[in-house]
Amino acid sequence: MSGKIIAIGNLKGGTGKTTIAVNLCGALANGAGHPVALVDADQQASASAWLSQTGEAGLSYHVLPLDSTSSAQRWLRNIRDLAEENDYVLIDLPADLGPATQAAVASADLVVVPVTPSPLDFHAAAQVIKLLRGVREERSNGHPACLLVGSKVDRRTAVGQGIEIALKEFKEPVGPSVCQRAAFVSAAVRGGWVGAYAVESPARDEIAALAKRVKRAAA
To answer: Reduced to 3 states, what is the DSSP secondary structure of residue 144?
Structure first.
């Protein structure tokens, strides 16, 4: 049985998608016996640079940018091959509507959309949702599922406190939010996921809660 393909992205940079992608991979692989692959489809290759500093048991990463529609079928074959070898394949997407985003959404079981408390992020998220709803109309299985995730949330602000309510306006499932925390920055510097760096921390708890919801949403 093939593993689940999970695309992570928004059409605006700075949404924390790489932080969520890398830490979700770590949480899904950590102690659960789930082999997990991270596909870095972003030309900036931030996710692979993060993970190249150290190894995580059960977690592999693959640099597979896609900048040409003509190469999409070969790229998708690589993704599906990884899904045959792993329980989860997470794709860190570029911040645009280019061929990688379109191909990933077309093949994904789940699209995770990180959204910061910003009008520009909400506008970009709306475009991703429009794309995935169009794909749903073409597929007979109701996929891809969608999970909107508040990202870089500051609970001290009114907009940070109300982000989950605001996200529900999109009429798609809303997952646990991930706050702006220094532990995520420190984990990136050390090259691992936050659960390996800060075992007992709110940051680790947030990622663990999100991973649990992602597993349900992708099932």
So the answer is: coil
Spatial distance between the Cα atoms of 91 and 173, rounded to a whole number of angstroms? 20
pTM of the model: 0.93
Strands (E), the chain: 4-8, 36-40, 59-63, 88-92, 110-115, 145-153, 178-179
Whole-number Å distance between alpha carbons of 209 and 219 = 16
For residues 43 and 173, give the distance between their C-alpha atoms in angstroms, rounded to a whole number.
29
pLDDT band at 13 (very low <50, low <70, confident <90, very high): confident
| Paired residues of 90 in beta bridges | 6, 38
Q: Is the pLDDT of residue 58 over 80?
A: no
Domain boundaries, the chain: 4-218
Residue 115 CA to chain centroid, in angstroms?
11
Q: Go through 57-91 and write b for each residue having 16 or more CB atoms within 10 A of its CB, e for each that does not.
A: ebbbbbeebbeeeeebeebbeebeebbeebbbbbb
Q: Which CATH architecture has domain 4-218?
A: 3-Layer(aba) Sandwich (3.40)
Write out the two tokens for 13. Answer: 């940079």
Those residues whose C-beta lies under 8 Å from the C-beta of residue 41, and which sit 6 or more positions away, are 64, 65, 66, 91, 92, 93, 94, 100, 104
